[in-house]
């Protein structure tokens, strides 16, 4: 089965055709114009693609209801729309992508695959916040986790490459960043929570901060809720510390601001990996993926330097020359360290085939 994979981002609608052997047969992005996809541009791209038998949409949030891929119909789309307040930056874009492609390819089976689904089976002790019972019961407050499609693929690929690894920490490091603890294929912990703001320092997001600080800024400094939200999402992270959200540029600088930004980023990342390893009761493999995870040998080396006590050690030559993906472990290291090329499209295509068949 050839599957059209639709990934709606903040600035473009990425369309890819994934073949039966996980090969990319075609790929192109349609830019956003005035906040919407140009249906004519979507049609033009799809008319130039190979014929497909089904469509798979990456959807960021499935809430508590959608914990596995699901075939799209009017009811499901309505439920996804109702989840928009849980992911206001992402869910509307996913829904716009569904509408745009449906308008060009009506009648084809379409499946939603969720970034939250991989974490849905986390143990209660990892998914539960210690907040009033009413919040958890009436409003469904819990730790959802995100980037699940990327973490799922990184784990599968690590098993293919390394074999026999049970306890794996996957590090999705891009503009957004998160870690997952994966035990024999099951996500048992992750760094993102109720929203994608929790956890690691990211390009423009703060990562975890003291909620008391947020309350203080509102109550005593007079900042409006909307102003705080905008700052934590778009004006924080590496951008706030170094004046740039581009990790490649920041890592190449030697000024005090850039050095601090890189130090904070790596410090939080090391601590997060150690926490995930604790959730697993040990570590067999550490996997780097995403734009920074794949592209920055320096980040990988600096993270490994602080995790020697877990058995993580990388080979400098292998780490510098790894290319798209491969193993960078030092000879004799107790933990396998891998670089894996992110392939969320493969996970989406796999989910589509599970739902509609087609091998």
How would you portray this structure in words?
This protein is of the alpha/beta class. 40% of the residues lie in helices and 19% in strands. It has 15 helices and 13 strands. The chain has helices spanning 39-47, 74-82, 91-104, 124-127, 133-138, 148-162, 211-219, 225-234, 237-242, 247-251, 256-280, 290-295, 297-305, 316-320, 344-356, and strands spanning 3-8, 12-18, 24-33, 36-37, 54-59, 70-71, 110-114, 167-173, 177-183, 186-190, 285-289, 326-327, 336-339. The strands form 2 sheets. A 7-stranded mixed sheet has the order 4-3-2-1-5-7-6, with helices on both faces. The chain is globular and about 55 Å long. The relative contact order is 0.13. The mean pLDDT is 94.
Helical residues, percent: 40-55%
Largest sheet: 7 strands, mixed
Query: Taking strands numbered 1, 2, ... along the chain, how are they ordered across the largest sheet?
Result: 4-3-2-1-5-7-6
Order of helices and strands: EEEEHEEHHEHHHEEEHHHHHEHHHEEH
Specify the number of helices. 15
- Determine Rg (CA atoms, Å): 20 Å
Show unreliable segments. none
Q: What is the 3D form? A: globular
User: What percentage of amino acids are in beta strands?
Assistant: 15-25%
Cα separation of the termini: 6 Å
- The residue-averaged pLDDT reads 94
Question: What order do the helices and strands come in, and which of them pair?
Answer:
Layout: E1 3-8, E2 12-18, E3 24-33, E4 36-37, H1 39-47, E5 54-59, E6 70-71, H2 74-82, H3 91-104, E7 110-114, H4 124-127, H5 133-138, H6 148-162, E8 167-173, E9 177-183, E10 186-190, H7 211-219, H8 225-234, H9 237-242, H10 247-251, H11 256-280, E11 285-289, H12 290-295, H13 297-305, H14 316-320, E12 326-327, E13 336-339, H15 344-356
Parallel strand pairs: 1-5, 5-7, 8-11, 11-13
Antiparallel strand pairs: 1-2, 2-3, 3-4, 6-7, 8-9, 9-10, 12-13
Helix pairs in contact: 1-3, 6-15, 11-13
């Amino acid at each position: 089965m050839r599957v059209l994979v639709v990934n709606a981002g903040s600035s473009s609608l990425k369309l890819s055709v994934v073949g039966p052997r996980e090969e990319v047969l075609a790929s192109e992005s349609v830019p956003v114009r005035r906040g919407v996809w140009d249906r004519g541009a979507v049609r033009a791209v799809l008319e130039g693609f190979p014929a497909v038998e089904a469509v798979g949409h990456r959807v960021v949030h499935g809430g508590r209801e959608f914990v596995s891929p699901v075939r799209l119909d009017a009811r499901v789309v309505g439920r996804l729309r109702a989840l928009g307040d849980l992911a206001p930056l992402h869910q509307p874009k996913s829904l716009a992508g569904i509408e745009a492609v449906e308008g060009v390819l009506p009648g084809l089976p379409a499946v939603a695959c969720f970034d939250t689904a991989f974490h849905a089976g986390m143990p209660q002790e990892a998914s539960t916040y210690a907040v009033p019972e009413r919040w958890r019961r009436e409003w469904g407050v819990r730790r959802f986790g995100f980037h699940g499609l990327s973490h799922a693929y990184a784990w599968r690929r690590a098993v293919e490459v390394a074999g026999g690894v049970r306890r794996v920490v996957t590090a999705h490091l891009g503009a957004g960043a998160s870690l997952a603890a994966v035990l024999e294929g099951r996500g048992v912990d992750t760094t993102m929570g109720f929203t994608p703001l929790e956890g690691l320092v990211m390009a423009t997001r703060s990562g975890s901060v003291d909620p008391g600080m947020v309350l203080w800024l509102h109550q005593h400094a007079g900042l409006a809720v909307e102003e705080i939200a905008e700052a934590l999402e778009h004006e924080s992270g590496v951008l706030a510390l170094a004046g740039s959200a581009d990790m490649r540029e920041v890592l190449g600088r030697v000024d005090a601001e850039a050095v601090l930004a890189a130090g904070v980023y790596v410090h939080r990342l090391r601590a997060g990996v150690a926490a995930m390893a604790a959730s697993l009761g040990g570590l067999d493999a550490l996997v780097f993926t995403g734009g920074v995870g794949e592209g920055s040998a320096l980040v990988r080396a600096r993270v490994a330097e602080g995790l020697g006590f877990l058995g993580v050690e990388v080979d400098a030559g292998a780490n510098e020359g790894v290319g798209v993906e491969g193993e960078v472990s030092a000879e004799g290291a107790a933990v396998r360290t891998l670089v894996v090329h992110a392939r969320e499209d493969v996970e989406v295509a796999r989910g589509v085939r599970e739902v509609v068949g087609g091998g």
